[in-house]
Amino acid sequence: MVAQKINEGAIEKIPGVILQAQMISQLLSAALEGRSLIWVWSIWQEIIWIWGWSLTGSLLAYYIRPWFYLAIATPIAIASLYGVCLVVIIHYSAWIPLVPSAIALIISIILIAYCIRNFPRSRVPSRSALPHPNPPRMYWGGNWISFFPPFQGGIKGGNSTCVYTVAL
C-alpha cells in the first residue's frame, strides 16, 4: 500500500498495483500516441540556467535605477521566466527549474539595487586623467613612439592636445 493525500487533507492508501498500472498507462500512451515523457536537465545545465537568471536580475537592477521602473521590470522578468518554462514543458516536455530561477532573479535584483543605492562609487579620477606609469611604446621608422592619453588644455599653455611623443 502506498499513501496518497486526498482533497480533504486525509491520507488514503492505494494499492501498489494501481500505482504501477498508472505508470504503465503513462508509458503506453507515450509509446502509442507519440507523446514524449517529461525529462530534466543535468545539474550543470540547471546551474547555468539559474545563474543566467541571476545575471539577468543583476543587469536589470544595475541599468534600471529608479525604483518605480524596477518595480515594473521585475514582474515582467518573472512573467517571462514563467512563460519560457511553460513553453518548454508544453512543446519539449522538459522540466526546467522555475522556482530556484525566480528566487535567484529576485534576490539578485534586491541585492544589486541595495548596493547601488547605499554604497555609491567613490570619486576616483578617471584613468585618462592620470599619467601612465609605463606608457605603451612602439618601434616605428627607427624611433620609439610612446603613446599617452590626451591631455586636456594642451602643453604648458598651448592650445594643442598632446597625443603622442617621440623618444629618440
Draw up the topology in text.
Blueprint: E1 2-5, E2 11-14, H1 16-33, E3 39-40, H2 43-63, H3 67-92, E4 94-95, H4 99-118, E5 137-140, E6 143-147, E7 164-167
Parallel strand pairs: 3-4
Antiparallel strand pairs: 1-2, 5-6, 6-7
What does this structure look like?
The protein is an alpha+beta fold and 168 residues long. The chain folds into three domains: 1-35, no CATH class; 38-118, no CATH class; 135-167, no CATH class. It is built from four helices and seven strands; from the N terminus they run ββαβααβαβββ. The relative contact order is 0.09.
- How much helical structure, as a percent, in the residues? 40-55%
Strand order of the largest sheet: 5-6-7
Tally of extended strands?
7
Strand residue percentage: 5-15%
Which sheet architecture does the biggest sheet show?
3 strands, antiparallel
- The overall pLDDT, averaged over residues, is 78
Give a quick summary of the entry.
The protein has helices spanning 16-33, 43-63, 67-92, 99-118, and strands at residues 2-5, 11-14, 39-40, 94-95, 137-140, 143-147, 164-167. It has 168 residues and is of the alpha+beta class. It folds into 3 domains: 1-35, no CATH class; 38-118, no CATH class; 135-167, no CATH class.
